[in-house]
Amino acid sequence: MKNYRTIRAPEDILNITNLHKRYNEGKSNEVHALQGVDLTVRKGDMMAIMGASGCGKTTLLNMIGNLDRRSSGQIIIEGVDTAKLSDSEKTAFRRDKIGFIFQLFNLFPFLSAVENVETPCC
């Protein structure tokens, strides 16, 4: 596994500072999905992200998981500033450090659970 340069207190596994995400809808409409989010998660913490539909929960998780780029702000995961990673480093970081359970599984109904898991390997 790659040795990532760390910049954090050892007990913090996630530090988010002043995170913003903006989307452009049309030529003149800008949507602010996240505005100034600050969050620290320490080793051993358990948390739930809850809120009304459209409040930014999925956007926040996509930012943490490096699936989408932030507009501004900082996300430090286990001491690594993920904005400074190249695309290939982000892919390796996701593989090594982040797990996902998607809301829509998009499984093949004609395959077993094991076969569904093996499909990307082929």
Verbal overview:
The radius of gyration is 17 Å and the shape is globular. The protein is of the alpha+beta class. A hairpin with a 2-residue loop joins β3 and β4. The protein has one domain: Rossmann fold (3-Layer(aba) Sandwich). The longest helix is centred in the C-terminal third of the chain and has 11 residues. It starts with 11 loop residues before the first strand and ends with a helix. The mean pLDDT is 87. It has 3 helices and 4 strands, in the order ββαββαα. Strands 2-1-3-4 form a 4-stranded antiparallel beta sheet, with helices on one face.
Secondary structure layout:
Elements: E1 12-25, E2 29-42, H1 57-64, E3 72-77, E4 80-81, H2 87-97, H3 113-118
Antiparallel strand pairs: 1-2, 1-3, 3-4
Q: Would you identify the CATH H-level superfamily? A: P-loop containing nucleotide triphosphate hydrolases
- Radius of gyration equals 17 Å
Helix content: 10-25%
Shape: globular
Cα end-to-end separation: 23 Å
Q: What is the number of strand segments?
A: 4
Mean pLDDT: 87
Count of helical segments?
3
- The main sheet orders its strands as 2-1-3-4
- The CATH C-level name is Alpha Beta
